[in-house]
Amino acid sequence: MVVGSTGSIGTQALAQMVRAADRFVVRALSAGQQVRELAAQAVAFRPDVVGLVGAEGMSADDVRGGFLLHLAGAKETAARDGGLELAGVGFVEVDAAGLDEYTPELIVGEDAARVCAGLPDVDVVLNGVTGSRGLRPTLAAIEVGSVVALANKESLVAGGRLVMEAAAPGQIVPVDSEHSAIAQALRSGARSEVERLIITASGGPFRGWSAEQLEDVTPEQALAHPTWDMGRVVTTNSATLVNKALEVIEAHLLFDVALDRIVPVVHPQSVVHSMVEFVDGSTIAQASPPDMGLPIALGLNWPDRLPGACPPVDWTQAHTWEFFPLDNDAFPAVELAKKAQETSPTHMAVYNAANEEAVDAFHDGVIGFRRIVEVVAQVVEAYDADANAAEYGRSVEGVLAAEAWARDAARKLWA
Ligand SMILES: NC(=O)C1=CN([C@@H]2O[C@H](COP(=O)(O)OP(=O)(O)OC[C@H]3O[C@@H](n4cnc5c(N)ncnc54)[C@H](OP(=O)(O)O)[C@@H]3O)[C@@H](O)[C@H]2O)C=CC1
Ligand SMILES: CC(=O)[C@@H](O)[C@H](O)COP(=O)(O)O
Ligand SMILES: [Mn+2]
Predict the structure, then answer these.
(1) How close is the Cα of 295 to the center of ligand 2, in Å?
(2) Which ranges in 99-160 belong to alpha helices (H)?
(3) CA of 42 to the centre of ligand 3 (A)
(4) CB 179 less than 6 A from any atom of ligand 2
């Protein structure tokens, strides 16, 4: 099943499932507000269950009504055209047999993703939701024993050890490109032979810029990622390097490697997705064009590869791959995260929540680009004084309380 099926990761996952239709049956789909798109996806994939949060202020009845209306429209189109054009997926052929009678069970409300993710007898739950709202769905899937193909890094970073301790070994399969690359490279040696993890970063649209140059950056500039086409939050996080900060912590938790042995390296081409250095001086890199099709397909089908998931590097052409150290002065987000992770079990939940608030404020024109990471730093520093920091890390409710505190503290900075 796919949580966040209408997003960038979700639609690319559906495209992979269309390509390898003999291997996948979609049991459930869940989305936020895109009712029309979800209804079309439902008609194309015929899940038993769909989940919808719905737009703010809409009643559950209105959301249901809207969905059923769009479902009827999508059925009509599919019957007429023999299929449906889905955003981010392409044209999907639809079998007319049983189409009229098809109506999925519909779960509506803020909890819809968690309910869908927690359905029993599902092999793999792909979590493609954005933000730490993905934490409960991740935990629900783990609890019922499904494999979690995890794109939603925030749930792991915010939940921390809680998530890793709830999961059985191998139950979380990384979809994030860097972590998929590391998981692939780790197959080259024993865990005891691993020296360091090298996480590549594109450097974002402002690679090489000084702190002063970053002062007047606009949302439009921040969303112009040089190599990847992704959702708004992760793209903004790439520009501030907060994405790399979250990914360093994600790697630390997933692969149980100490923070001082995880090295972020700027690689503007985004072809080497990360590397593992072994004790004998050998470095194993995973390379493919910047296309999430590969890590998504591998995450859904782990440990087996899906043929044709993405085109390979064209080795008949000349290529230049560059690697540079990170500029921690202009982009302090990674160092800040390492310190936060070492301070308490909930400091990264606070870091991430403050960042989510600051990213929204930046896009709303309330704060400037550089303020995003400054806000995160201020909120994390203020949290040091909270006597409950360690206690919060022992339960989901505690993590959510720490997050709520952080969101409030962040908003007060520009109120
Ligand atoms: N995009 C990429 O290439 C990569 C993304 N990632 C990670 O994957 C995750 C998803 O990113 P991306 O696909 O870019 O994000 P998008 O913003 O494109 O998609 C987010 C999805 O979450 C859904 N959603 C929004 N609010 C809720 C809610 N309250 N409950 C349930 N679902 C909700 C959205 O639904 P709707 O649109 O219907 O409102 C949408 O389907 C992030 O954690 C990101 O960091 C990691 C590596 C690469
Ligand atoms: C595709 C993917 O995994 C993103 O998380 C990507 O890594 C973002 O690029 P940056 O390296 O610029 O953060
Ligand atoms: Mn990534």
Answers:
(1) 12
(2) 112-117, 135-143, 153-159
(3) 28
(4) no
Q: Which ipTM did the prediction report? A: 0.99
Any idea what the Cα angle at residue 282 is, between residues 278 and 287, rounded to 5°? 100
Residue nearest to atom 48 of ligand 1 (CA): 176
Which of 66, 88, 63, 91 has the alpha carbon at shortest distance from 77? 91
Q: Which of 155, 230, 247 to mutate to test the pocket of ligand 1 (most atoms within 8 A of CB)?
A: 230
Mean pLDDT of the chain, nearest integer: 97
| CB-based contact 240:377 (threshold 8 Å) | no
Task: Calculate the alpha carbon distances from 356 to 237, 325, 347 in Å.
Answer: 9, 26, 14
> CA torsion 211→215→220→221, rounded to 10°?
-30
**Ligand 2 centroid – CA 202 distance (Å):** 7
Of 346, 354, 349, 351, residue with least CA distance to 390? 346
Residue for token digits 């700027």?
266
Distance of CA 293 to the CA centre of its chain: 14
Q: DSSP secondary-structure letter at 227?
A: S
Residue 4, Cβ neighbours under 10 Å: how many?
Answer: 27
The C-alpha atoms of residue 60 and residue 285 are separated, in whole angstroms, by 48
Tokens of 326: 């990170």
| CA–CA distance, 61 with 162 (Å, rounded to integer) | 35
The confidence score (pLDDT) of residue 384 equals 78
Residue ranges of the chain whose pLDDT lies below 50: none
- Determine if ligand 1 sits within 6 Å of the CB of residue 250: no
The CB of 128 under 6 Å from ligand 1? The reply is yes
Give the pLDDT of residue 394.
84
> What pLDDT does residue 386 have?
66
Q: Is 41 in the pocket of ligand 2 (CB under 6 A)?
A: no
Which ligand 1 atom sits closest to the C-alpha of 233? 17
Q: Which ligand is nearest to the CA of 36?
A: 1
- The whole-model pTM stands at 0.98
What are 305-344's pLDDT values in tens digits? 999 999 999 999 999 999 999 999 999 999 999 999 999 9
Given phi > 0 = left and psi -120 to 50 = alpha, else beta, which region is 308? left
CA distance 47 to 95: 14
Distance CA 111, CA 101 (A): 27
Handedness of CA 366, 372, 378, 379 (dihedral sign): positive
In 3D space, the residue among 3, 87, 97 whose CA is nearest the CA of residue 49 turns out to be 3
